[in-house]
Recover the amino acids of this structure.
């Protein structure tokens, strides 16, 4: 009887390892950075129009960074938004990024955005976008 139980347990373990693990479906999410952003307060800040989408019932946070070469030096700033709307629809979010170094100027800059989404009980995902954008007055 003991030998039969051991064989049965070994067979069950073999079958369990052969079955594929149940994959958790990815959380639906998207982030898009506009091609143009507006300079604020003589370049101290820039307002970046964004579109975000995350699955209904999830919670999302957004991080945006803008960097620009200004006469050989970097103007850079970032902004963290702790909560964005998650309804399954796209939402417009204007993110104002304040420079930590020197003032932004009209012209080309680089923007990076990261949308972190958590869907209870244990499903999360990160979507990112990077792009060149034009800063205008």
């Amino acid at each position: 009887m003991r030998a039969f139980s051991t064989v049965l347990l070994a067979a069950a373990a073999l079958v369990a390892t052969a079955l594929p693990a149940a994959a958790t479906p990815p959380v639906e999410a998207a982030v898009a950075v506009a091609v143009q952003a507006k300079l604020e307060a003589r370049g101290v800040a820039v307002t970046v129009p964004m579109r975000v989408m995350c699955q209904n019932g999830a919670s999302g946070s957004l991080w945006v960074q803008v960097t620009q070469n200004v006469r050989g030096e970097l103007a850079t700033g970032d902004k963290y938004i702790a909560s964005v709307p998650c309804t399954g629809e796209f939402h417009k979010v204007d993110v104002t990024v304040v420079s930590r170094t020197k003032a932004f100027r009209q012209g080309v800059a680089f923007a990076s955005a990261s949308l972190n989404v958590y869907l209870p009980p244990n499903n999360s995902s990160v979507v990112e976008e990077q792009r060149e954008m034009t800063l205008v007055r």
Observations:
- The first helix runs from residue 2 to 18.
